[in-house]
Amino acid sequence: MYIEELKERLKTCLNEERYWHSIGTMEMAVELAKRFNCDEEKAQIAGLLHDCAKCLSDKELMEYKDNFEECEKISPKTWHAPVGAIIAKRDWGITDEEILSAIRFHTIGKKGMSDFEKIIFIADKIEKRTREDKFREKIEKTLNKTNNLDAAMLKSFKITIKSLLKRKLPICFQTVDVYNDLLNLVQNN
């Protein structure tokens, strides 16, 4: 029942496409949680709420700029993640630190992410309701081939970094640090 209440409330905070993306992320997060032996209920909540601040304006998001990593300030597309964690705690009553951290780092990632945080990160990229097949399938193929969350995350970062370079957009140094850390983990396993 709790999840249904969250869904109804989320409908009032997000536009239709973002709402269905959140539903898709929740569904994929549960699927991955089952596969990688993580808490399915927590995965539902984190997947559902990961973009709870996505439809706020840049002006509204900037009110929280003191909570951004320095490198996040260069890319408005990442602002909803730290704000989402704050809103999930303050307005939605989420107190589980792992859920809050998964929401907080679902865009730029961080070194040393837990499997649960990785699941939410990946679920956001490969949910089937709104993500482009071309992008989603590359990550999903890596995940299915390796059964390794780090390898799937590395694939996602490769695609993202390549896209940012192609569009001549800034890259958060934390994203590069996470990429390098994942590359090391995958090559040494």
Briefly characterize the structure:
With 189 residues, the chain is mainly α. The chain has helices at residues 2-11, 16-35, 40-49, 58-62, 80-90, 97-104, 115-126, 133-146, 149-166, 173-187.
Characterise this structure.
The protein has 189 residues and is an all-alpha fold. The chain has one domain (2-187): Orthogonal Bundle (Hypothetical protein af1432), CATH 1.10.3210.10. It is built from 10 helices and no strands. Helix 3 packs parallel to helix 6 (97-104) and helix 8 (133-146) packs antiparallel against helix 9. The longest helix has 20 residues, at 16-35. The N and C termini lie far apart (41 Å). The mean pLDDT is 95.
CATH top-level class = Mainly Alpha
- Assign the CATH architecture: Orthogonal Bundle
Beta-strand portion reads under 5%
CATH superfamily: Hypothetical protein af1432
Coarse shape: globular
Number of strands: 0
State the main characteristics:
189 residues, mainly alpha, single chain, 10 helices, Hypothetical protein af1432
Write the layout of secondary structure elements.
Layout lengths: L1 H10 L4 H20 L4 H10 L8 H5 L17 H11 L6 H8 L10 H12 L6 H14 L2 H18 L6 H15 L2
Helix pairs in contact: 1-3, 2-3, 2-7, 3-6, 5-6, 6-7, 7-9, 8-9, 9-10
